[in-house]
Amino acid sequence: MPKTELSVGTIEYEDSGGYGVPVVLLHGLAQDGTVWRGVVEQLGPEFRCIVPTLPYGSHRIPLHPGAELTPHAMALLIGEFADTLKLGGDTVFVENDAGRLQQLAAERPDRVGRMVIAGCEAFDNYPPRAGGKMLVAAARIPGGIALMAHALAIRPLRRIPGTGYAIMGHKPVPDDLIDRWIEPLRRNPAARDVLVRYARGLRKTEMSEAAEGLRSYNRPALVVWGRQDRMMPPEHGRRLAELLPQGRLVELDECRTLIPLDRPHGLAEAIRTFVRETSSP
């Protein structure tokens, strides 16, 4: 995988190498870029799909000691990543699960030429319902993240309704992905510390503040949401589409939070249509 050096350390990323519009695909906490594999299969030949592995606990390259790891710092890191790769104003940023792209667009609207918010934390749903609140609670207990990671290594425990990855997917999240995502958290104390510092740096009002900032984001924006989402309320998707000056909405059936896994074809088609309709002739 190619790598780039940012202020927090070395970041790995995948690059489909297509000659079309750059599409940056951003994953959530305790995941890596493999959550986007089905979408990249659909879009990779047509667009330049760039998928960074963000330092959200499932990364494998150590960060610089003392790196700032708050949610706000991670939002700015996305902009730094795009700056380092010299991505232009036609770039499309797509985020699933987290809310850092909303913060970046509110603070640096000039950096985010176009964006797709796909089933993300927003407004007062922060940390988001059962899954997010469970992770933040674990981060506040000494050894809590390690206990959570080791519990998720037991495959039957992954299927307990309303918990962890189980609440995030309409279909069961593939075991090979979960195995990959939790391996650094099981084996590396530094990876666990990233989640602890991130959770402890969270401010409960920051997503509502970002939403206010999005009211002046007068650039093309698409909101994609799963109608069966139990962690990110579908009404939040509708609210985001309404407050964005150029917002548009796509809702998908048989789909929860992890839209790239539940409906990769539907999400890829929504992105493809959005890019075509908002590109300059």
TrEMBL record:
Pfam families: Abhydrolase_1. GO terms for molecular function: hydrolase activity. Residues 210-262 form the AB hydrolase-1 domain. Keywords: Hydrolase. It comes from the Bacteria. This is Alpha/beta hydrolase. It comes from Streptomyces himalayensis subsp. himalayensis.
